[in-house]
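Much of the work behind modern protein science is quiet bookkeeping, done one molecule at a time. Below is the pair of lines this work produces for a single protein:

***
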Amino acid sequence: MPGTATKWRIRIRTNNRSWGFSHLHLSLYSLKPGIIEGERDSLTGQFLKATNEIAGSSDFHSYQPDAPFQKIDHYKAVWNNSLFIGQSKLEATIGFQQNRRKEFETPDEYGLYFLLNTLNYDFKYILPEKNGWKFTSGVNGMWQDSQNKGSEFLVPEYKLFDFGIFAIANKKIGKLDLSGGIRYDTRSETGKALYLNENGDVVPASETGDTKRFQAFDQTFDGITGSLGATYQISESVFTKLNISRGFRAPNIAELASNGVHEGTQRYEIGNPNLKPETSLQFDYAIGMNTTHVSAELNLFTNSVNHFIFSKKLSTLGEPEPEFDNLPAFQFTDGNARFYGGEFQIDIHPHPWDWLHLENSFSYVNGTLKNQPSESRHLPFIPAPVWVSDVKIEFDKVGRFLANAYFKIGIDKTWKQNRFYAAYDTETATPGYTLLNLGIGTDFVSGHKTLFSLYVSANNLTDVAYQSHLSRLKYSGTNYATGRTGIYNMGRNVSFKLLIPIDFSGKK
């Protein structure tokens, strides 16, 4: 469903001084996005509103979303500093954010209400370059406090603290660039217990007949990560890269402790407090070229992940699938996984037609679980192979009043995804599709001054009905008139973007 958005940004800064600089950024935005549930009329297959009335044309073209919808107010302050200490430099960034997210089941009453406070910190000390060596060290992390202010619940109230310390080194030896780093991270997560009485009201402690919605927990995860990489300039126009890295990711609050309806995924999600942190070992290799008329690069990777976290549909053998609030139930689990794939990009701008660009890219990725039968061998939500091809024409100047003009036409070709997590009917195959896109834009100028810039883009010009394999809405709602399941992606869409520069400096 459509929605509305308002955004403001203020920047307070000092000019660069001999000692460095200090900038303060303040911003806020208010967003009111609709939530798609996919409910349809059983006879006509048309979408239904929350009132069970058939949605009309005015509902789809209105910027005021029908229930259910979310209202999000986000406030942010970031203080960014850079200080010179002799030949060294200290960079310090501290940010505070408050996110208020309400989910309305009716136009006037919200159910979920998350109040999340986040404090981020990042301190880096950069030593002066010496004998081709560059060293950077620092600490960063965040603190979070999340509170449930509504009458419905998805995750418990929790507190989180992240701390990481790292060191990075770079060395240039002729045509060879070497870089490496090491990092230690620790995360502490504390969840608060929640009890509900028979009426669904929150009670302070457990009493006879009360339901424990969330279990209290206190967990700490830590791990060491690192990387070592090299870039070699084979010739003036050809280069190659090689990198090996070890990764670490702690499970988040949703993965550990969810127990409720997630409207955005049309699922009832259940956490797993026994999850372990993910650790990975990845190899990356790239080779590329940059010439006057051709730029190309091939990137390949393979990544082994221990305790990879994903969610799967719950199922009971020989009985109907478990459902909560009329939605399928999914629980987070983990397994040892392997990812591999790559991307190839090429941009041809032949002489003497330097204004012409033939841009092509192809990407492929596969993800599998080790030691699993065929129905659970492929990981869920792995994108299908994609080829993007664009023809772009650019002009620095068109007459007296147009500059930086371009025209672009292209296709996005996505292949069928028939490698999917079939166990428990978690996923199904997704057909392929091809989209035709168009774009045009220019700056309107007077002399050396840009008055405004206008950009027009049209996506899916042929109005193809398609579903992305990565869309969770692919499994929501059945159209009984056509037999098709789920919500389809956006059809033909035309957008306009107008940028008007405003200068309050008074400079001519």
Q: What stands out?
A: The two ends are 45 Å apart (CA to CA). Residues 349-508 form one domain. The longest strand covers residues 327-348. The CA atoms of residues 402 and 444 lie 5 Å apart.
